[in-house]
Amino acid sequence: MLRRLLEYIGTRSADGRAEDLKEYTIGVEALDRAADFDPKTDTLVRVHIHRLREKLSRYYLDEGREDDVLITIPRGHYGAVFLKAPSGAAQEGATVEETIPPMDDPTPPELTVSQPGFLRRSGFLRRSWLAITLAIAGLAAGVFIGLRAAPKNTGENDLTPAVASLWSSFLNGDKQPIIGYPDAVFLIDETNDLLRYPSGAAGQRGSKVESHLAESFASNPELVRRAGPLYYEDGYTGTGEIESAATLTSLFRQLGAHAEIKRSRDITIEDLQNHNVVLLGSSFQNKAVDELPRQGDFRFVKAGPRHELWDGELENSKPAQGEGRIYRTERDPVSGVLRVDYGLVSFQPGLSAGRHIVILGGLDTTGTAGATKFATSEEGAALLQQAGKTTKNGKQTAPVIQAIVRCMLKDGNSIYGVRAIASHASEWHETNQ
User: Which residues cross the membrane (predicted)?
Assistant: First the structure.
């Protein structure tokens, strides 16, 4: 899908048609969305443009560091920009974005703005059309799509046997699985500042919060008292959860199922009984995950009653040799930038026969994205299937299959490597249900 997206955007931009690249057009013409595609409710284009930017940046820091032509998609635009690589920029570790003048800066010498958001070097596209065409073709052929350090994600038409087997077993004939995303509740003041509201009765979005409720249940009562009028706001979801929902929706479609995406707080007991459910996010953010009876050896643990910001923990209650007991988000000791996040993959039986629940969550939103990358990769699916082949007293068990994954981060946000550091299969305790 990313290969097709790059080729579509690149060729139209090089042809001088960047102005025609709208979210709707890209969704319908490049990403196979139907004619009734609504970009306001379907984030597919934004998610994949974000992924494409990340892949391009990483490509030019590694395999493409010697390339003569740099291709990038400036933020806020869908048109591609082609530039001649500055001498030594890649070797010195500069990202693609750092080689491009800011869009609101005066145009540097020999550069003219031919369209909004589209920089064109005078005569450069004409003289280098062959080089640009080859660059698009080379990248679109998959030079940068697979990361050596990370498991390969499932995309359009590339289901591998292990991935197809694992997730077909999960679906078990269910044509409408449910993906539950977290929508943590905040209190918002009249200047759009947000205050966390992790517990307590919450009204409908936009309704005014009674002051005694705000002070009793908000994470920081002192700030609440000084904030003035407050209103309920539950319209924010992490980027990792959005990317995960897009990945899973694509995967299920390839397996003949059409996922229903719901806020986790709207998932009912009937949903859990009649459908297979994937819950995205940790128990810190996803109420449904927090309310599930604990299964397996791995679980999320809060560091304290108030603090959640990168202070949560993943606990391994039965560490095997070489495994840790506690995993925490790791940050640069000087700058504080996030360097490592951890995610949990957990497959367990659902509330009725033949139904399943999967939890894909991280200490941070990047951990959720990493858990999904792992569970939808060939390596991850093979490991999870192998972990599920456990026996007890010579009989196959119906285990809870779990893995803790370590996610390496660039710039605190982009994942460039995911690997499993612990995987367990444990017996499912029906009495907990």
Answer: 129-147
Alpha-carbon span 339 to 412, nearest angstrom: 6
Q: Cα(first)–Cα(last) distance of the chain, in Å?
A: 40
Per-residue model confidence as pLDDT tens digits over 81-92: 887 766 544 444
Domain extents in the chain: 2-143, 161-182+238-432, 186-233
Of 157-171, 353-367, 392-406, which range is least confident? 392-406
Q: Are 300 and 368 in contact (CB under 8 A)?
A: no
Q: Give the contacts of 427 (CB within 8 A, at least 6 positions apart).
A: 392, 397, 398, 399, 400
Query: Any idea what the Cα angle at residue 258 is, between residues 366 and 363, rounded to 5°?
Result: 15
Query: SS3 letters for 190-244?
Result: CCCCEEECCCCCCCCCCCECCHHHHHHHCCCHHHHHHCCCCEEECCCCCHHHHHH
Which pLDDT belongs to residue 387?
74
Question: Does residue 180 contact residue 280 with C-beta atoms inside 8 Å?
Answer: yes
Q: Phi, psi (5° rounding) for residue 365?
A: -60, -30
Q: What is the pTM of this model?
A: 0.62
